[in-house]
Structure formats: structure tokens, C-alpha cells
Write a structure and sequence with these properties.
Elements: H1 8-24, E1 29-35, H2 39-47, E2 51-57, H3 59-65, E3 69-76
Antiparallel strand pairs: 1-3, 2-3
Length: 77
């Protein structure tokens, strides 16, 4: 599996867009999930105000995908 880095400006624009859509739909909390080990995503979401919420790990998932599982971050909007 190849994980490619997105341009930082594009990532920030997508985060802002998602937050604005969630706010306009009446949601009070936004969540984002990403593969454990995707450090670039973790840095981008942390910079945007998201904090660790939970993670799910599974050895079978890791054997197939190469990452131990998913990490979820959340923030109020």
C-alpha cells in the first residue's frame, strides 16, 4: 500500500469545508478517522483543532492492510 502526502493547503481547505458543512447541518461535533501510522494526517488534524478520541486495532486488519487499525480524532464545531 502506498500512502501519498496531500498538499498541506488542500488538506486544510478540505477540513474547513467539512467543518462548515457540519456546522450548517446542525452538528455539534466532527470526527475524522485515518489509518494508524499516517503521521501527516495526524499532524494536519491536530493543527485543525482535532484531538484523539479512540482507536480500533485488529491483527487480521494489519495483516491485510499493513496498518494496525484506525485512529479517530474529534472536535466541536
Amino acid at each position: 500500500m502506498t500512502i501519498r502526502s496531500a498538499r498541506p493547503g488542500l488538506v486544510q481547505a478540505l477540513i474547513v469545508h467539512a467543518l462548515e458543512k457540519g456546522r450548517s447541518a446542525g452538528f455539534a461535533r466532527a470526527t475524522i478517522s485515518f489509518l494508524i501510522g499516517n503521521d501527516a494526517a495526524e499532524r494536519a488534524y491536530t493543527k485543525a483543532g482535532f484531538v484523539f478520541a479512540e482507536e480500533k486495532r485488529d491483527p487480521a486488519f494489519e495483516a491485510i492492510i499493513g496498518a494496525p487499525g484506525f485512529r479517530m480524532f474529534a472536535r466541536t464545531i
